[in-house]
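Case study 2.
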Amino acid sequence: MNKLQTIEHPAPASVPIAVHLRSVTWNESHPQMRNADELEARLREIGATRYHNLHPFHARLHGGKCTKGQVQAWALNRYYYQSTIPMKDGAVLARMRDPRARLEWRHRIENHDGTHENEGGIARWFKLTDGLGLDRELVTSTRGILPATRFAVDAYLNFTRDRPTLEGVASSLTELFAPGIHRERISGMLESYTFITDDVMAYFRKRLNQAPRDADWCLDYVRTNARTQEEREAVCDALLFKCEVLWTMLDALDYAYVQGNVPPGAFVPAA
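Prediction:
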């Protein structure tokens, strides 16, 4: 396992100066994590309180309150995230010394890119964008995405390139909470929108099986390899960072397409 990287910045006198980017354990409500079970409990608490299923935009999306243009904008922007996932996984893979870990991790890239053309998660995402009437070239070019989407997703990619393997793996722990949001999305959108068919929801149906397997491996990895308080804090911070990436993307969608502040150059739905 790579040696944990640290940086120095001002901190309360009771906290060591050499710390990770920030710590979610600096206050009395978050005491020391003495073992893997306490680490897991903290991770699940972060998911319960910070995962993007709690964002108001998702309530609109899954509850049938979005226009078709707003759903198109969501799918278009989310494509940038989906298409970056294999790059993120490649960055994590490149830092893994253990060949057993690499063998397990590389299937994630195959899940999204496929082993043949026209299969894999990205191909299934095209079923969604095609079904919504979005031009394929517009989708793949990413010209119409929101600036905040690009900044957030690029920040996530850079995080996995720059931070130790343990933190890169931990950032994918949002998969622990993904099956619930996928089930809600499938049922809610099929029920609420006449322009949504079962076929265009293929990506989310597949992730109902893939995400739990991936999440279980990640959870076991961080439970095994985060052995010190500092490493456990770093794992929690990585998950919190990833939650904030996903939340930021929805903030931007809400501001642009619900509140009506579409920035110059971004996708403008048809009237």
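The first helix runs from residue 36 to 50.
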